[in-house]
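In practice, a research group might receive sequence data for several interacting partners and want a quick structural hypothesis before committing to experiments. The following worked case mirrors that situation: the sequences arrive first, and a predicted assembly follows.
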Amino acid sequence: NAGVTQTPKFRILKIGQSMTLQCTQDMNHNYMYWYRQDPGMGLKLIYYSVGAGITDKGEVPNGYNVSRSTTEDFPLRLELAAPSQTSVYFCASSYSFGGSYEQYFGPGTRLTVT
Amino acid sequence: KNEVEQSPQNLTAQEGEFITINCSYSVGISALHWLQQHPGGGIVSLFMLSSGKKKHGRLIATINIQEKHSSLHITASHPRDSAVYICAARFPDNTDKLIFGTGTRLQVFP
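A structural hypothesis for the assembly, expressed as tokens:
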């Protein structure tokens, strides 16, 4: 199993551009998450999904959108990129929801908005 | 407010030393996770516990529910243990999400 994969690994965006961060898992996990990690801060949940077709907001959803059309894929869309969205983004998945089950993380995407 | 705090923020050690990283949380939790973030950025889950103690190799995690405190111990530390160690807690407020600490950066020198 490849586990959780993310693309791209690095990206530089100009202010106002858009992009999609891709996330795929091959463990047949129903639950998937997007986090951002800022320097000196803990991981913050952006959006999560409990299954195909079902998504919900986390702590910091503003400026992002998600979709979940299949169990495997959970892309994160940035519209009108802003410097405040410069961060490292991690996708994760788990067998069930939240804190009672181990979460498996992707390798991360380092995004810079200038 | 559900909060997770870690100490110390940074830790340096000589190879072979016994390491302790601490995590405290504001209210009762359902589960606590310890994660390791490698220098290259990847995050792996080390432990998930809700009571007592767990051991895996040279790593030991303990939790004291009454004191709202957990510790991660590394015995016989090695330079390859150099990483950021993160604790995360699930609070029983029906949101079922993890709240993460800011991490402890550990450097082990030969």
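Before designing any experiment, note the following. The mean pLDDT of chain B is 92. Chain B touches chain A through 27 residues (CB under 8 Å).
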